[in-house]
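Pinned message: reference record for DUF2200 domain-containing protein
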Amino acid sequence: MNTTPKHDEQMAKLTFASVYPHYVTKIEKKGRTKDELHQVIEWLTGFDENKLQELINDKVTFKTFFEKATLNSNAHLIKGVICGYRIEDIQTPLTQQVRYLDKVVDELAKGKKMEKILRSE
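Predicted structure (C-alpha cells):
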C-alpha cells in the first residue's frame, strides 16, 4: 500500500506540537516515561530535550521538523506496519520519516525494550 500525494501533503503540514501530546499520553498510559519518549525521539532525530521544546514552541510542521533533524543512520532498520502502511514500502521520504517516529513511539508504548527500539546493525 502506497501513500497518496494528498496523504503526503497532510503529513508535511501537520505540526509536531499537535501530535506530541498524543505521543506522551500513549506512552504514559502504558507505564513508560516522558524521558524514555525523549530518548527515542533523540535517537531518531538528534534533537535533545531543549531543541525538542523549541520546535514544539515554534509549532513547526513535520516537514520543517525532519528538515532540521539528523536522522539516525540506522533508521532504515525500522520496519513493519503502522497506520496501515508498511514503512519500508513508503516512497515519500518525509512520510516515511513521520512513520518511523510513529513506529518507535508505538514500540515504546507496547513495552519493547529500549535496546530493541534504538536499533543498531
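Pinned by admin. Summary line: The chain has a mean pLDDT of 94.
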